[in-house]
Amino acid sequence: MTRNTNAPTEAGALRGRLETTTASVAPLDGALWLVRHGFPVFPCDHPEAPRCVGLHKTCDGSRGKHPAVAFTRAWTLDERKVHETFARGLRNPAVAVGACSGPDEARLLVVDSDRQGAIEDVAAARGETWPATMRVWTAKGHHDYLWAPAALRLGNGLGSLQGQFDGDVRAGNAYVIGPGALHATGVLYELEDPERPPLFAPAWLLDALVTKPQYTARRTQWRDASRSTPGQPRGARGLAAFVLDSRPGDRNNRLFWAACRAAEDARDGGEDAQDALMEAAVRAGLSAQEAATTIRSAYKRTGVTA
Question: Which pLDDT belongs to residue 56?
Answer without folding.
Answer: 78
